[in-house]
Amino acid sequence: MTVQYSELIQPERVHGSLYTDPSIFAEELERIWYRTWVCVGHVSEVARPGDYVRKNVAAQDVIMTRSTDGEVGLLLNRCAHRGNLVCEDRRGNSSSFRCPYHGWTYRNTGELLGYPYNQGYGGKNKLELGLGRVPRVDTYQGFVFASFAAEGPTLKEHLGAAAGELDRLARLSPEGEVELTAGWLRHRAKANWKLLVENETDGYHPQFVHGSVFSVTGSPIGALYSDKSTAVTRDLGGGHSENDLRPEFRRAARPMGWFGTSEARVPDYVAKMRALHGEQAEEILIEGAPHVMVFPNLFIAEISVFTIQPTAVDETVQNVTAVQLKGAPEMNRRLLSQCVGSVGPAGMLLADDSEMYERNQRGMAARRPEWLDIRRGVGRERIDENGFRIGAANDETGMRGFWAHYRGLMEEGAAQ
Ligand code: FES
Ligand code: FE
Asked: What is the domain count for the chain?
């Protein structure tokens, strides 16, 4: 039976089967994950020629490599002989990969170099085989994106207004570059990937889910999402959304206030930024880092970067690392410890959020009511000066933007 996405996704509600039906998940892989641009990592993870790291695009294992001529490429981690994973280590440096099963070897650009006992192949020492390659690879501000569609929108077109948020993050580095070199933590959640995406843009839950952490630590984060907050939720188009906390930071007008610190604590960094940006430095230091969900799987929560990787209809892996700013060692130590404290293995925020995604998934095993309600804030949305739809800090404006784009992709995919 063909799924009618226009029936399951309505402006103010979405159907529960979108999170639980394996056939919908299979269609999502084809129409979204193996078609649109998906973030896999960052060029700084493969800084030197020969460096490689294992990554994923949904269920597909890929190897991100840096070739001798400096190109970043994405190879599929599947031996051309009989399908074994050719690369086992999570990261390393090598000009070639050797499959452990029967010893076939490949250059780090994918060409087959050789195989043992070639008499079995009629003495031929070069079969026309090699590792698969992701058809399109592109980068923006060092973030590496993959698209399995040979044609389609460019990365720039896909990112649209979200590109400006990546620029805003990079601008916080005194050298204008972000580095993701702190290593990744992997959290597995028994929940559909869209529950994670929705949660990233949900400004309604922090006060409740993280209330105990905020009160114990005296954190002001909860207030940023309260009913009195001047922060906004913005639908950036293309399924991207942001929780724009800048109005609150501007009101407080404290350089480094966004980071929960003051300039006296990070004097070298602040001095470097002032020397570099002159008058504009104050605005940059006050406004801080973005809180943006880039469709479908890159989430930047100020100091932490997440990539979301669906592995089954009810299972998702969330990879997390700390933002590191090139040329700012003083900041980087703090960024790392704050990231680990909030979303690390014993982190205080992610453990609470994970509990919520998993409870959501379990809750939806019950079949009534059939719908999830996403109407919060519909009646008070407005269009900002740049033409984007915005809602209050705790409205579901971002979620509705996500679903509109999702529906478009799923319907287009059906038409092809
Ligand atoms: Fe890789 Fe046989 S499966 S060498
Ligand atoms: Fe949360």
From this structure: 2
* CA 55 to ligand 1 centroid distance, Å: 20
Query: Is 97 a pocket residue for ligand 1 (Cβ < 6 Å)?
Result: no
Q: Are 54 and 40 in contact (CB under 8 A)?
A: no
- For residue 80, which atom of ligand 1 is closest to its CA? 1
Output the pLDDT for position 219. 84
Determine, yes or no, domain membership for 148: no
Among residues 295, 284, 345, 286, which one has the least CA distance to residue 320?
Answer: 345
d(C-alpha 163, C-alpha 168), whole Å: 9
Q: What is the pLDDT of residues 222-241, one digit of tens each?
A: 899 999 999 999 999 999 99
Per the structure, the complete domain to which residue 101 belongs is given by 39-140
- Would you say 399 and 198 are in contact if contact means Cβ atoms under 8 Å apart? yes
pTM over 0.90: yes
Q: What CATH number corresponds to the domain at position 24?
A: 3.90.380.10
pLDDT, tens only, 323-359: 999 999 999 999 999 999 999 888 889 999 999 999 9
Alpha carbon of 341 to ligand 2 centroid (Å): 14
User: Do residues 209 and 266 share a domain?
Assistant: yes
